[in-house]
Amino acid sequence: MSSITTPIFALAIASRHAAEENASMGVLVEGEKQNSSHSKAFCKGCLNQHKPALPNVIDVDAAGDSDAAGSGSLGDGWMAQAMTQITSVRGVRASMAAHLVSCPFASAAAKKAAQSAREDKKRNRNGSDSEDETTPPVKKHATFVAVDKVMKQSELTVFKGIDIPFNSTQKELVQKQFLRATISANLPFAWTVNPDIIKLFIMFRSRATDVMPSDAVLSGRLLDESASNVEKQLKKDLHGQYVTMGSDGWKDGYTVTGVTAAAQGKVHLVDLIHQRGKKKDGDAMCEAFCGHIDKLEATTDCTVVGYVCDNDGGSQNGRKKLVILRPWVLATACCSHQGQLILIDYLKENPEAQKTAEESSALVGWINNHERVRDIFDDVQTGGDPEKTPLAYLSGNLTRWTTHSIAFNRLIRLRAPLREAAVARDKLIIDAQVGAEKNKKKIAAMTKEAKQFIALLDDPRFWKRLQKLAEDIEPITFITNINQGDSTRADQVLLGFAGVFLHFKKHKIPSVAKGMMQRLEKRWAAMDQDFFVMALVLNPYEKLSRFGNDAGIDVFVLEGILLNLYKRVNSRPPVQPLTDAEQEDKERKEAAVSAAFLNYMSGTGPFASFEESRERFQNVHGDDPILVWRQFLNSTDVSDLADFAILLLGIVINQGGVERVFSDMKIKRTRLRNRLTFKKTEKMSKVGAVIRAENMAAGLTTAREPRKNHDDSRVAELIAVPKYADILENEDPADDNTAERVSSRLVNSRAAWRKLFTSWAVSARQEEMEAEEDEEESAMTVPHTASRKKWLPRSLSLLFGGKIQKEPETRRPRKAFNREELLMELLAAEHSDEEPDDGELEGSGDDYDGDSE
């Protein structure tokens, strides 16, 4: 600190290092530094303004020693108190002079000297900051020192942005955003220590490295804090809610079980569990299911009302044992898998369709595997115009069931250019196939293969069989799309089964119709019919309107089924035995539910107003039945029935959420990041799901429009029980991560198709054998009741039979593309006016490329 020698610097300097200068001015004060280089300084004029009006108290300037101002140190006496009430000045010459010039309490002499000092500084800007103005400035000369290049410390040479430091609050917010960006963009944790990334951020702000977290901080403290916040929010979201749990297995070096919880149309990841060394028999699986339920209910205070799992041996037996132990839990098999199983049933009942699927897959594989051959077909597609982009030749994927339908429809769409190329350019195709091959045997084999596919493309019978195959599997893929959403209800699944059943009931091949009807009836018989039927009946937009003339419905029988199902759901043992008053209240609620159901079926009482305004309400709010029942929760007479209806209609009966979690994990655990632990991956998945939901709610990301894999004009013909087109609009876009996709395994040869079909058939046969064993053992999954024996179980043929509209003789022609009309020189092709999507359907498990258990 420079010394002060003129009246202008009439300041008390709070520093031990300035003791001698202060002593020469008549004041001795000691104190702390403002920072490592400068001391605090206080204006004497400002200090005197806080002098107490007491005798024997003198001004600071008149104090001969420190005792005059107080007791002898900076922290004592009135001066120390005054220093806490005024603003200090940084103890450098320029700062003190600037204060004195504008200070109203400084003397005239002090202000004059301060002004003079400021003018001296202007005249000598290149001088030293020393208090001794007589010392001439020292000229600085550049000194060059030869330094060995190896000994130089590495540094980043980059254009620097603005130099503004970050405070602690800003640092915390920036680091949290770094974690969000890392999870959202699926970046490796070490990206923040990449030199080029650091250069990039320094170009925005030179102090960026002060707040950029390291990979250890990102994957450690920040990830743990965010995951903890997600867990707290999950507890709030599930508190007091009816929850459907689901679990599924996945193999990626380790066997892992994913556990999810679905509530209010959203699926949350709850846990990832290592299954190494654990049994998978029925007893072990039942114990695991009970453990999942108990843990979730204990931590979130929710009510688990449903459980969904696979229908394989261990899971199936475990689910049935769970229902016996806990009948209040409505446990069902995953209904999204039923689409694949029904597709297998169809291919087994229709060998001609299986052969056509094999030929189509081999044809597409042949085109895609020979680039020069593909170029010929592409050239015919575009008419030789290089500005046009040809449509791709799609292959079905082993683990994406709906892609087979998309691939077949794409092949039908390309029928005209493919046939034109096969006929008009057959020699060019053969030459392209053979290429520069010199071996005669290989040339003969290649020529034979090319001629076989050329003949197949020119065979009208093949295209007719392919058209029929696509028409038959389209309704199957349609209900598969519906059944895999995060908000799929039991009534929608039942209507999907009925629609496919009635579709094949009208099939032109009697053997296929009979075989498919029997297989669908068998699958329906294995389901909890009380639950599914009552879910459809409690849909206020449906009620009994979808049942056929042969259903033999009796409202009083339905009332008995409803009451027994209500008692079953509410049979959870109480913590304490019920008192007489509580038992009476329970019986009163059961009677109220029964009476409310009769009013609901007749549209009287509290339901009369809704029946009158149902159409208007539906036009405004859509056809969500849960929204309707929520309006009756405050009605005393029907509140219990409304709560029960919301419970049934809110159960999500698929594992789509679990499979989407596995898909997300597959993206995160790449080949370069395979050392990520599953617990860390679990945290990343949970945090990532919340980030996607928040960005979607804030409008920062655009929701992908529902895929249109089915022509709108064709939807009404797919199933005899319609009202499915709107269901696809509610699909969850949570996994809309198009930046990175899991590599697919395509079916592009006859051998691949046979292998795929064989694996499907083995799985289906195993399930049939297990079902037959269960029938022999008479395993009860749902308690039988008197009313159930009278009406349920009931076949699909009886429930939805009766007068059925006659199927049109010919399918409605598809509209052709204008650019393809010029290519239809050989045969008129039927084409769709909507291009099928190249990718998988969202929320279907399409992203999942692992081995399910």
Indicate the percent of residues in helices: 40-55%
Q: How big a fraction of the residues is strand?
A: 5-15%
Q: How would you describe the shape?
A: flat
Helix tally?
34
What structural class do the secondary elements suggest?
Answer: alpha+beta
Q: Return Rg in Å.
A: 40 Å
Low-confidence stretches: 1-31, 62-76, 127-134, 142-151, 722-744, 775-789, 804-853
Number of strands: 11
Care to describe what's here?
There is one protein chain. This protein is α+β, with helices and mostly antiparallel strands. It has a domain at 7-123. Helices cover 51% and strands 6% of the residues. It is built from 34 helices and eleven strands. Strands 4, 5, 6, 7, 8 and 11 form a six-stranded mixed beta sheet that branches. Strands 1-2-3 form a three-stranded antiparallel beta sheet. Strands 9-10 form a two-stranded antiparallel ribbon. The two termini are 76 Å apart.
List the helices and strands and how they pair.
Layout: E1 11-14, H1 19-24, E2 40-43, H2 44-48, H3 66-69, H4 77-83, E3 89-90, H5 93-102, H6 108-123, H7 168-184, H8 195-204, H9 215-238, E4 242-251, E5 255-263, E6 266-274, H10 282-300, E7 303-309, H11 313-325, E8 330-333, H12 338-349, H13 351-369, H14 371-382, E9 396-397, H15 403-413, H16 415-424, H17 426-434, H18 440-457, H19 460-483, H20 490-505, H21 510-525, H22 529-537, H23 555-569, H24 580-602, H25 608-621, H26 625-630, H27 639-649, H28 656-668, H29 678-697, H30 712-718, E10 746-747, H31 750-777, H32 786-791, H33 796-799, H34 818-821, E11 851-852
Parallel strand pairs: 4-7, 7-8
Antiparallel strand pairs: 1-2, 2-3, 4-5, 4-11, 5-6, 9-10
